[in-house]
Design brief:
about 200 residues, alpha/beta, Rossmann fold, five-stranded parallel beta sheet, 8 helices, 5 strands, binds adenosine-5'-diphosphate
């Protein structure tokens, strides 16, 4: 803890009081996977399912955060690490208020995912949104694979920046084999074990 920082957590309303108000426990699902693997699509579908069940959620989407909080960060390893650190801290803040928090972020290295788990704590569910890079490139929902192939994008994950397959994921969603609805339903099911506990 830096000098002259005196945290005030103990003076504020405890998480449990807010969780009682919301009728749910805070939890974080951290969706990692290649660009175009389906993280945002699944998070959006899961959020709608949860909303229709009366659950309070937030999505922390990598691209959205990069347009604001993380707009000063690029795609070097150091910047990606900082991107993950900030996102994990924000996720922890939301989950601490009882919110079901869905993070959609490539998170390409085990080191980054370990840091996210460490920051978020025991309420973190790691989800690997899995799809072969060829399929992601064929989908290319944001046109990034085409841009990278044309040389217009440095440090693009799956091309000149690596992606280490998650080996410690609590849930693997294979989007080459399962529909968006199936993947979202599986995500909601594993979340339910925590938020409804
Ligand atoms: P990411 O957030 O991982 O970069 P997106 O969710 O933006 O990826 O894009 C994934 C693309 O793949 C979308 O066009 C989506 O419609 C398509 N898709 C096809 N099957 C699936 C599936 N089972 N799950 C998620 N996305 C899928």
């Amino acid at each position: 803890m830096p000098e002259n920082i005196h945290t005030q957590f103990h003076r504020f309303l405890p998480s449990a009081a807010k969780e009682r108000l919301l009728g749910q426990h805070g939890v974080v699902a951290w969706l990692a996977g290649l660009s175009g693997s389906g993280k945002s699509t699944i998070a959006a579908a899961a959020e709608r399912m949860l909303h229709s069940e009366g659950r309070f959620t937030v999505i922390l989407d990598g691209d959205n955060l990069r347009s604001g909080l993380n707009s000063n960060l690029g795609f070097t390893d150091d910047d990606r690490r900082e991107n993950v650190r900030r996102t994990a801290e924000v996720a922890k803040l939301f989950a601490g208020q009882g919110v079901i928090t869905l993070v959609s972020l490539i998170t390409p290295r085990e080191e980054f995912r370990a840091m996210a788990r460490e920051i978020v704590g025991s309420g973190c569910i790691e989800v690997y949104v899995k799809a072969p890079v060829e399929l992601c490139a064929a989908r290319d929902p944001k046109g990034l694979y085409r841009k990278a192939a044309e040389g217009g994008l440095a440090n693009f994950t799956g091309r000149d920046s690596g992606f280490e397959e998650p080996e410690r994921a609590n849930l693997v969603l294979d989007t080459a084999a399962s529909s968006v609805e199936e993947c979202a339903a599986r995500l909601v099911a594993i979340l339910r074990e925590r938020y409804a506990a």
